[in-house]
Amino acid sequence: MLAPHARVTVLEAEDTIGYHSSGRSATMLHYALGNPLVRALTLASRAFFDSPPESFTDAPLGRTMPVIIHAREGELPALDGLDAAIAPFASLERVGPDEILRLCPVMRVGEGGAVAGLVDSHGLRLDPHALLQGYLRVLRNKGGKLVTGARAAAIDRSQHGWEVVTDRGNRFAGSVLVNAAGSWADRIGEVARVKPLGLSPKRRTIITFDGPEGADVAGWPFVKTVGEELYFAPESGRLFASPMDEVPSDPCDSQPEDYEVALAAHRVEERTTMHVSRVVHKWAGLRTFAPDRKPVAGFAPDAEGFFWLAGQGGFGLQTSPMMGAAAASCICDTPWPLENVSPDELSPARILGQPA
Questions:
Q1: Do 176 and 262 have their domain in common?
Q2: 3-class secondary structure, 225
Q3: Considering the entire predicted model, what is its pTM?
């Protein structure tokens, strides 16, 4: 988003893009995630995924996958609340046990199981590889460059802007430094001697396993409990599932722990009629949140030219078009792209308690 308006160099600490959170996401666009700000960003981003800019990608950025959010008897008030919260952003259908079983025949329904659900027939399973490669293509087509293996070792402010020295001794300079370092964003702020935001990386675990013998799971929906307990969906002929864990973590190459792997399997068996006899694959990633669990895009109030782009939690991919456009607007003074979100709502000043 910056590349059409400025000279842009992306410094990637790893040897490839998308190594951490972006490459380990469940990649579903849905509205049961986050808060009103996240939902507004998601809604505004949807058109980009449905109709990408010309030459952005040679492959679709996603495919339609229905989303079903289900509730037991005691969870119905939470389902009602979620329905009301999503209503301004998407139209969901209220369904009962019969429709839940039709959409996903392994669900436990009735007494002790799901008794009601909300269905979004227009959910979107994003392709993170196609999305990242599309952004990279735009960057390069507009004269920008990506430098991999460029981990920041020192960051200094000068009269002309900012200078970054990598751990390999290479130097890069620019008038604006965008801190888009994910779970490492606060550490980058500290290296640059900028007040950190208090970001919290949290580990999330995903497993894959075989569906019931003989079942064609490809057409099943993305299935989520109304609370933060479990989701599962088709994945390359198998199923993937997460116990929706949020385990505090230092920034790292996150790895799954045995407890969360077992918890994912247990919750699948508790909420469905399936038995997870073998975990085929498992992985973990870090989802990083600002203190108010809202994303951050704006200049640091205590450091001229230092721009925070952080705290995307588990919704970074599905909000990326509008977060990118908002960042470009703030940095390059292009028209503000969001009708129902103001720059102040994204600004780091709201967290640091200083004027923007």
A1: no
A2: strand
A3: 0.94
